[in-house]
Write a structure and sequence with these properties.
elongated; Helicase, Ruva Protein, domain 3; alpha/beta; Rossmann fold; binds zinc ion; Zinc Finger, Delta Prime, domain 3; single chain; 3-stranded mixed beta sheet; 26 helices; 605 residues; 8 strands
C-alpha cells in the first residue's frame, strides 16, 4: 500500500478537529444546525490554514444523512459524508481557479449548476484560488451568484481576497482564516503523532516547536515538514535532526550577531556578517533573524517568561543573551531600533552588506545605558559645586575671573552673585540692586573706579524695571542690562532686536557699554550701522540705564578661549566631555546666577 502523506491522512473529517479556526467553525456549525445557509461563501486567508478542508466539511454537512439534532453534522460516517471525504461525491465539485480561469469554464459551470443534485440535497461548488479567474469569467460567475439555483452553494477560496471584484465580494458571506498559532500547530502535531503511534519519547518537544515555527502558521506545511522529519530521523523527531533539516545555519549566525552586538564587540559582529555573506546567505534575512532573536530576548526580559514557541534550549540562550545587555530592556530596545532601521535601509540600498556593517559598528558603539544615570549624577555634582561657588566668596573671588570679557579688559573684574546676606567678605554683592552707594563691596576689583555711574545702579533706576545686576562695572551686570535693552529694542524694532540679541557684552567702562556682535553679512552690518537704528538703540539704552552714555558695538564675537578659560566652564567640559560651540550672554533676571556660557555643546557619552 502506498504511503499517504500526513497532511492528507489527517485531513479533518469533523469540525472538531479543525485546528486554529474556532470562530469560523462555530459559525458554520450553527448555520448548519439552524439551516441558515448562504448561497455563496468566501474563505480568505493564507495557504495551508484550512480553507479547503473547511469548505469540504461544509459540503459534507450540507449533504450529511445524519438527522438534525441526533449528533454532530457532518457525522463523517454516513455514506454521503464518506463520499465527500473520499472526493467521490457527484454533488461536490471542486474547481481549481488557476487552471479553469476562462469564461468558457465558468459558463460550463453555470450550465451544470442548473441541474438538480444527483444524490444529496445541495450541489456545492468549491472554487479554489478564485482570484485567478479572468475578468469575463468573473462577470459570468457574478450572474450565477446574483440568481443562483436554490440547490446550489458556492464556496470561493482565495489567498488574495483583495484581488476579487467588489461585486463578487458583496455577494459572499466572508470568513477570514487566520494563520495558525505555533502552539496550536505543535499541539496538533503531537496529537497526530500519538495517533500515528509514534512513541512520546521519540519526539523532542523542542523539535515540534521548531517545526511549528518553521511552518509559519500553515498546518499543511507543518505536516509536510513532520513527514520529512520522520523519514529523516527514521521514526524519531529530534531537535538536532530538525535543525539540520531546516538548515538553521543562518539562525546560528543570527544568534552570534545578536551576541556580538550585546557584547559591543564590533570585530565579532563584522566577522559574522562576513561569514554570512561568503556563505551566500541573504543578509536582509540575517538582519531579520537577528531582530527576531533580540525581540524574543526583549519579551523574556520584559515578561520574565519566554513566548510559548520558544524551545527550552532557546530559552536558555535567550537568558544568556539578556544577561549580556547592561541595560536590560533598554539596551535591547536600542538594538532593535537600530536593526529595524538598518533593515529598512538594506531593502533600498545597492550595498546592503555595507548598511548592515555600518549598523553593527554603530550599535556596538552605542551609549552605555548607565551613561544617563552618570550624567544625572554629574549634573547634581555640578549643581552643588555651583552652589559651592556661590556660598564661598573667597573661592569664587579667587578662582573666577570674569567670564565674558577678554582677559586684558580692565573692567573685567568679577564678582559672583550670591544668595547670601550682604556684608560678607569681599566682592559680595547683594542680588537686589541697592540705591547708589559707595562701591565698598567691590573694593578689590581692579579698574573699577567709580567715576562713571555704573550700569548696575543705572539699570536699577527706572521705575520698577530694575535689572538684577550682579555688580557694578562688570560685564555680567552689563549683560543683564544689555538683555533689557535688547528686549525693548525687539519690542520696537524686531529685526534690529534679533540682530542685537546675538551680541555679547564684553565690557563696561566710563558709562560705555561695549558689546561684541557677530560678523554678519552685509545686511547685518548695514542694519547695525544705520543711523536710525543707532539712534534708537542709544535712546533706549539711555532711557533704561540713565547712567549710560554710549553703546559701542564691535564686530566679531569674543574668542571662545576667553570663556573656556573659566574654571566652571572647564569643569563642565571635563564632566560632560563636551566642547564649547557657542558663547552667548545669559539674559534674564537669573543672569547673575548663571554666568556660564549657556550653550555648552557636546555629547555626553
Ligand atoms: Zn454524515
Amino acid at each position: 500500500m502506498s504511503y499517504q502523506v500526513l497532511a492528507r491522512r489527517w485531513r479533518p473529517l469533523t469540525f472538531e478537529t479543525v485546528v486554529g479556526q474556532a470562530p469560523i467553525v462555530r459559525t458554520l456549525r450553527n448555520a448548519l444546525a439552524q439551516e441558515r445557509i448562504a448561497h455563496a461563501y468566501l474563505f480568505a486567508g493564507p495557504r495551508g490554514v484550512g480553507k479547503t478542508t473547511t469548505a469540504r466539511l461544509l459540503a459534507m454537512g450540507l449533504n450529511c444523512e445524519q438527522s438534525p439534532g441526533a449528533g454532530p453534522v457532518p457525522c463523517a460516517t454516513c455514506p454521503a459524508c464518506r463520499e465527500v471525504a473520499a472526493g467521490r461525491a457527484l454533488d461536490v465539485i471542486e474547481i481549481d481557479g488557476a487552471s479553469n480561469r476562462g469564461i468558457d469554464e465558468v459558463r460550463a459551470l453555470r450550465d451544470n449548476a442548473r441541474y438538480a443534485p444527483a444524490r444529496g440535497r445541495r450541489k456545492v461548488y468549491i472554487i479554489d484560488e478564485v482570484h485567478m479567474l479572468t475578468e469575463p469569467a468573473f462577470n459570468a460567475l457574478l450572474k450565477t451568484l446574483e440568481e443562483p439555483p436554490a440547490h446550489v452553494v458556492f464556496v470561493l477560496a482565495t489567498t488574495e481576497a483583495r484581488r476579487l471584484p467588489a461585486t463578487i465580494l458583496s455577494r459572499c458571506q466572508r470568513f477570514d482564516f487566520r494563520p495558525i498559532a505555533g502552539t496550536e500547530i505543535a499541539t496538533a502535531l503531537r496529537r497526530i503523532l500519538d495517533e500515528e503511534g509514534v512513541a512520546a519519547d521519540a519526539v523532542e518537544p523542542d523539535a515540534l516547536r521548531l517545526l511549528a515555527r518553521a511552518a509559519d502558521g500553515s498546518l499543511r506545511d507543518a505536516l509536510s515538514l513532520l513527514d520529512t522529519a520522520l523519514a529523516y530521523g527514521e521514526g524519531r523527531v529530534a531537535t538536532r535532526t530538525v535543525q539540520e533539516l531546516l538548515g538553521t545555519g543562518g539562525a546560528d549566525l543570527a544568534w552570534n550577531l545578536a551576541d556580538a552586538l550585546l557584547r559591543r564587540t564590533a570585530p565579532a559582529a563584522l566577522a559574522g556578517i562576513g561569514e554570512a555573506a561568503s556563505a551566500g546567505l541573504d543578509l536582509t534575512l540575517l538582519c531579520q533573524e537577528t531582530l527576531e532573536v533580540l525581540r524574543r530576548a526583549l519579551l523574556l526580559a520584559v515578561t520574565g517568561a519566554p513566548d510559548p514557541e520558544t524551545t527550552d534550549d532557546e530559552a536558555t540562550r535567550l537568558r544568556a543573551l539578556g544577561a549580556l545587555g547592561e541595560g536590560g530592556a533598554a539596551d535591547l530596545l536600542l538594538l532593535l531600533r537600530g536593526l529595524l532601521d538598518a533593515e529598512a535601509e538594506m531593502r533600498r540600498s545597492p550595498h546592503p552588506r555595507v548598511d548592515l556593517e555600518i549598523a553593527a559598528v554603530r550599535l556596538c558603539e552605542r551609549p552605555r545605558p548607565e551613561a544617563i544615570e552618570t550624567i544625572l549624577e554629574r549634573l547634581e555634582q555640578a549643581e552643588s559645586r555651583l552652589r559651592g561657588y556661590g556660598g564661598s566668596a573667597e573661592t569664587a573671588a579667587a578662582t573666577q575671573p570674569d567670564l565674558l570679557a577678554p582677559a586684558p579688559e580692565p573692567a573685567s573684574s568679577g564678582a559672583r552673585p550670591a544668595d547670601r546676606p550682604s556684608g560678607s567678605p569681599a566682592r559680595v554683592v547683594p542680588r537686589t540692586p541697592r540705591a547708589p552707594g559707595p562701591p565698598e563691596s567691590r573694593a578689590s576689583a581692579p579698574g573699577s573706579a567709580g567715576a562713571a555711574p555704573s550700569l548696575a545702579r543705572a539699570a536699577a533706576a527706572p521705575g520698577g524695571r530694575a535689572v538684577d545686576i550682579a555688580s557694578p562695572g562688570t560685564a555680567v551686570g552689563g549683560a543683564a542690562a544689555w538683555a533689557q535693552i535688547v528686549a525693548e529694542v525687539t519690542r520696537v524694532r524686531p529685526t534690529l532686536g534679533h540682530l542685537l540679541a546675538e551680541g555679547v557684552v564684553v565690557g563696561e567702562d566710563e558709562g560705555r557699554l561695549r558689546v561684541a556682535v557677530p560678523n554678519g553679512n552685509a545686511f547685518v552690518q548695514d542694519q547695525l550701522k544705520n543711523p536710525t537704528n543707532r539712534d534708537l538703540l542709544l535712546e533706549i539704552a539711555r532711557r533704561l540705564c540713565p547712567g549710560l552714555k554710549d553703546v559701542v558695538l564691535t564686530p566679531g564675537l569674543p574668542e571662545v578661549p576667553a570663556a573656556s578659560a573659566h574654571p566652571l566652564v572647564q569643569a563642565a567640559i571635563e564632566l560632560f566631555e563636551g566642547e564649547i560651540t557657542q558663547v552667548r550672554a545669559v539674559a534674564g533676571p537669573a543672569a547673575g546666577d548663571r554666568a556660564a556660557p549657556e550653550t555648552l555643546g557636546g555629547e555626553a557619552r
